[in-house]
Hints:
Rossmann fold; alpha/beta; five-stranded parallel β-sheet
Amino acid sequence: MERVSVVGSSGAGKSTFARDLAQRLGVRHVELDAIFHLPNWEELPVEEFRAAVTAEVAKPAWVVDGNYSHVQDLVWERADTVIWLDLSRPLVMRRVIPRTVARVVRRTELWNGNREPWSNLWSRDPSTSIIAWAWTSHAELRERYELAASDPRWASLRFIRVRTPRDARTLLSDARS
């Protein structure tokens, strides 16, 4: 594994896993959220996002985390491995709710000065609440990656489907450093 894409539902632990894997492999960690989300939650225009990601994945070795369909082709055309954190929806929700509450209360900076808004704690709108997004996107992402794993376009990629936190820990401990 030299060029790895880590995907999965919000709350599955993509960023933490990707950061740990990159450290073990001795390669760069690229968090797509940090590129896409500009200050004040502005979104980087798609063409600029694609250009920034193209520059990152042109490097010889990396671990990229994120589910952005606008750049998946760029990442996967250079990747050798896709690690899909496919945790159950109940587990994802048990993770994303406390994480969001902690980020809101502590005013934790995420990317480029952005912080979780208080509305994330009660909004049911997936476009504005990470909790609602994690709930509503879970099945869609599962279907997307099940199809991708069997798509001939991605036959050159090694897909690793991780279904439990224990499997994730085992994968990390087996990664070369």
